[in-house]
């Protein structure tokens, strides 16, 4: 199921508004208010996907389909026919992600609150924290699956100045790295902002190449 993460966070991506909130010390316990400014049904998100240094147009459409007390379902559509490297990764996903015409059309879920974001992209479908907005460098979000393997996400940087370009301005970011056991993938890297949520995502491949995407909010 980790391959689905490629689809949801790199190929099409998303982000949700958040702010700091005190909560449990459990890394996979997420507090905060379930009402956020951009997780309303109908909200749409934009991408800027690159393979290496070249932009690719996936004709992507990412829309909030439902929000059930913070459990947000996104419908993701796109065409990867012009991006064979991305299609190769999606083809590893053990679920149907394509419609009858061969285009991507799939629903994915996240828990979204004003304190952070979680996904369920593991074989047990347990909540796994992507980011907490009060994160400190060195924080880890670990999840041990029923097969005994552990997925580890580590906060590797947090900027105190607006130094990351995002659209027409610069913002502060938190950087999270995740290990990978998917053949061909070295690691995942995400950037999050205390106001805009997940704003950038990268896949570092074992052949030395990289797939990346900016993730733009409806009202950024």
TrEMBL record:
PROSITE patterns: PROKAR_LIPOPROTEIN. It comes from Ignavibacterium album. This is Lipoprotein. It comes from the Bacteria.
């Amino acid at each position: 199921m980790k391959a689905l993460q490629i689809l949801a966070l790199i190929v099409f991506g998303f982000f949700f508004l958040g702010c700091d909130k005190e909560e449990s010390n459990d890394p996979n316990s997420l507090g905060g208010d379930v009402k956020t400014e951009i997780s309303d049904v109908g909200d749409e998100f934009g991408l800027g996907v690159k393979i290496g240094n070249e932009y690719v147009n996936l004709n992507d459409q990412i829309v909030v389909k439902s929000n059930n007390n913070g459990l947000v379902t996104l419908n993701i559509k796109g065409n990867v026919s012009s991006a064979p490297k991305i299609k190769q990764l999606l083809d590893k996903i053990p679920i149907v992600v394509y419609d009858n015409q061969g285009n991507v059309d799939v629903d994915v879920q996240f828990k979204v609150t004003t304190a952070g974001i979680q996904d369920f992209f593991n074989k047990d479908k347990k909540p796994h924290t992507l980011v907490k907005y009060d994160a400190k460098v060195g924080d880890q979000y670990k999840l041990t699956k029923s097969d005994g393997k552990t997925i580890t996400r580590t906060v590797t940087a947090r900027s105190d100045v607006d130094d990351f370009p995002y659209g027409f301005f610069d913002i502060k970011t938190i950087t999270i790295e995740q290990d990978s056991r998917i053949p061909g993938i070295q690691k995942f890297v995400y950037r999050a902002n205390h106001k805009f949520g997940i704003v950038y995502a990268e896949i570092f491949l074992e052949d030395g190449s990289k797939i990346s995407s900016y993730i733009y909010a409806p009202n950024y």
